[in-house]
Amino acid sequence: MLEALLPPQTYFSIREVSELTGVKGHVIRYWETQFSILRPARRDSGQRKFTQKEIDAIRKIKDLLYAKGFTISGAKKLLKQEAKRGIQQLKLDLGNEVSDTKILDVFRNARKDLEEALRLLKL
User: Which one, of 48, 7, 10, lies nearest residue 26 by Cα?
Assistant: First the structure.
């Protein structure tokens, strides 16, 4: 619903993210130290550049902490469990006998493909 209102851009400043999520900048910076899913890239100047993925993560964390009453520790545990379930689902999708190494290979190959696409777009 709110995604439709987002401007068509790839990266967002912390100020823009704060306005989009309703979470103050200093809180977002603190959450970066607490939640491994929040690791925005940085510009050469050191400014954070958030993607839609980080904005979604901030919204999820905000919901867990403010609406559902989780502690930071509890929210971390839940997010780790969800990530683990995602890996388990990927194993099911790829076949039960798939190893963690195979899953890492899938992610590495996807990353290489995305990096190549990015390189081509910059030409």
Answer: 48
**CB neighbour list of residue 61: distance below 8 Å, 6 or more residues apart:** 31, 35, 38, 75, 79
Number of structural domains in the chain: 2
Q: Tell which of 41, 69, 97 closes a domain.
A: 69
CATH number at residue 43: 1.10.1660.10
For residue range 44-99, list pLDDT tens digits in order. 898 999 999 999 999 999 999 999 999 999 999 988 888 877 766 666 666 655 56
Confidence band for 19, pLDDT divided at 50, 70 and 90: very high
Q: By residue range, what is the domain housing residue 9? A: 1-69
Q: What's the pTM?
A: 0.65
Mean pLDDT of the chain: 84
